[in-house]
Amino acid sequence: MSESKPGTRDPALNGTRNIRVEMLTRVEGEGRFHLKVRDGQVEEATLTIFEPPRFFEAFLVGRSLFEVPDIVPRICGICPVTYQMTSVRALEEILGIRPTAEIRNLRRLMYCAEWIESHVLHVFLLHAPDFLGYANALEMARDHKALVEMGLRMKKAGNTLLEVMGGRAIHPVSPRVGGFSKAPSPKRLLALLPELEWGLGAAQETVDVTNGLPMLDFEQPYTFVALDGGKDYPIEWGERIAVTGRDPVALEEFEEVFQERQVPQSPALHARLPDGTPYLTGPMARLSLFPDRLHPLAQEALERTGMRLPVLNPYRSIVVRAVEIVHAFAEAIDLIRGYRGADPAYLEAPLRAGEGRGATEAPRGLQYQRHRVDGKGLILESRIVAPTSQNQARIEADLAGLAPEILAMDDAQATLRCEQLIRAYDPCISCATHFLKLEVERG
Amino acid sequence: MSTGNEGSTPAAGRGSAVAEAPASSKPRLGVFKLASCDGCQLVLLDCEDELLAVAEAVDIVHFPEASSHLAEEGPFDVTLVEGSISAPEHLAQIQAFRKASKVLVTIGACATSGGIQALRNFATLDEYAERVYAHPEYLATLETSTPVADHVKVDYELRGCPISKRQLLELLTAVIKGRRPEIRNESLCLACKRYGYVCVMVAHGIPCLGPVTVNGCGAVCPSMGRGCYGCFGPKEGANTRALAERMLAMGIPRDEVLRAFRFITGYAEAFREESIRHE
Questions:
Q1: Which of A169, A188, B128, B214 reaches 20 to 30 Å from A142, CA-CA?
Q2: Chain B residues with CB inside 8 Å of A63's CB?
């Protein structure tokens, strides 16, 4: 195909080595990174985002709360359901709506579909080529056609479930404050079972395939953060947030505990715990904190891998995602089997002024939203915290941790290693950019 | 397969013209993004049944979201551009994309209308930046978010938030074959009638932009029991004034009518003018 852009070395600085990638590929959105090593010590490790700001939190002001679930998914085309589900949770708290069990199950089902679509996209099309030495999945398909076709079919199974429930897979239209504009008929969902059951088998195979990939040794001391979903694996619901080795955090305390701060020499804000500790949210955090809440079939797949918990090697996240794909297929099948319809499809309540918070687990990690409305239901203030802006400080710390290993490599190898590490977090730069208060200083 | 979604037609599916192009004359495809959510380029990766065939038929030389090969300088036979012109660097970028491309196609509501971020065009930027950013002086952003066609010549546009998979495959097939893509200018209402969806406005009094919005999605919103919110933008010759009058007559408050037109494609001319009428 065409030339790639390797990292460049700056020979002018004696004893100093700069590794830069100007355009991160196979990630959502646009960013670059820079690692500066001097005499074996990391001087700087920065992941920079150069997506332009789109001002979502500003133009939400003055819109009706009923419009929010149609607006916020436009922040990210990869995980629109995350934005919808987090927003309705916060907005329903304002109105005092407690969704019925049927509605909550449908939301969880739709969220499972998004996990399947997003995780399979990442595992097969974005991440696996790194392990097998290809620049993209299409080239990988020349040598591993059956594998890529299996991934595409699994992804389609997730997208088809999204289409049936939401009208379309990207920016689905049925989720609304109180429930769904229309609930799917049990018959339409049951018709999807054969393909989802195939997907479950394929997901189990994916766990074994990913577990057999050549894995690099690299462990980091992670502080994990994940939504505590009660007895269920953390997905669409939770009243508090679990943190490795610390007290759980109530939603009301989110903004006090997970602080976005400015870091010297960097215009970006990074979320850290009050004592400055960077933390990690996402599949490794969920699995490490709540392995016993996985679906039994996903637990079985996990045991087969022999993976030790907590998972401290970020490259292993591809296996963790595969385990979560098993969970999502298995739980989707259970939810469809138990579904008898949802009537009413949504609940209503009189408008009133107030403030509400919601948190859910996007495929790539914890998302938080807070909205405040006036008596007419018009937004006065919104705050949205996406997973990648929370993970950014941790990603940079990991890049710094990579330095001793890459010093012995040539530039092309070192660059690839850094990129591969960043991709392991499935960063969503489109999401992160809209919330980093200060991002890029552009001339 | 999907509710009301038109999916892929036989004309554009696997084994069609896309797969038959001779390997020696593979057109070079570039995919770029400006200010956007990545959803429209994801539609290409969501063509699960057709993706490998598309990759056989075209040489995907620049698509950072999917591949580590980069060739942003081109040349390209076909370029898909997602996103709006929203930051200073976009002004030079879009000129470069145009120069490097034989056929330039804008994909999605951002590229074709300025997108939802064009809501800032109706406010002052200072007001916005101060609300979101602690130090707005560091922000390099344009006052407005505008469609690509305001800056360079655009050969074809695919509307929608997101675009339709069927229309994307039709467009790629047509460009490969050297014919014009068949993308109709019909209102969403026609799709509802074709699929037999109950009119949400007539039957339930739900406001719907279907009469003035171009079809492309297959009327997904009415199929889900709700009104269209216009994410494919106005159809040519849309009578927005008549629809707004009808909505007001139904008892919908004027500020809601304004917001209905000032939404995801609110900066598209017909919708923009209608919302301004209700200020």
A1: A169
A2: 259
